[in-house]
Design a protein that fits this description.
Layout lengths: L1 H20 L19 E11 L2 E7 L2 H11 L5 E12 L9 E7 L2 E7 L2 H11 L4 E8 L3
Parallel strand pairs: 3-5
Antiparallel strand pairs: 1-2, 1-3, 4-5, 4-6
Keywords: Signal
Length: 143
């Protein structure tokens, strides 16, 4: 009998505690529509440097900033490898979390970048591609 009362009281108190600590908020997310044009595209640079003591990497908004970061991380070190890769990104996606990586090979060259939706990734591929598309790929990241 004592055990039954103890179990029932534990369940009731747990349920009451759960309701008392649950924060109820209204999720309101503004929908921002961005037209995909050449004016709304920016370039971000992903840099990495490998030295005898380790490897460092990051992203920068300009090529000069990426070179400066490599210089800072490799100061007084032997540089084994350094790499800077540029990506085409919508200006509205530059600060948001990226979920779609895209890459395209066309008859006139290669391009790659990040987008926040598959639709935007396809639009970016269409916008950046000059000539015939040879291959393209879109990779979705996990959240």
């Amino acid at each position: 009998m004592k055990r039954s009362i103890l179990i029932i009281s534990t369940v009731v108190l747990s349920f009451l505690n759960l309701n008392a600590t649950t924060l109820k908020t209204k999720a309101t997310k503004a929908i921002v529509k961005t037209e995909i044009t050449e004016n709304n595209i920016t370039t971000e640079y992903e840099w990495s440097v490998k030295t005898l003591t380790g490897k460092s990497s990051g992203t920068s908004s300009s090529l000069e900033e990426a070179k400066e970061m490599i210089r800072l991380f490799s100061r007084n070190e032997v540089v084994l490898e350094k790499k800077i890769i540029s990506y085409h990104v919508l200006k509205s996606d530059a600060s948001d979390s990226r979920t779609y990586y895209w890459e395209v090979d066309s008859t006139n060259g290669k391009a790659k970048g990040y987008s926040s939706s598959e639709r935007d990734a396809r639009a970016m591929i269409a916008l950046v591609t000059k000539g015939e598309v040879i291959t393209y790929k879109i990779i979705t990241s996990k959240k």
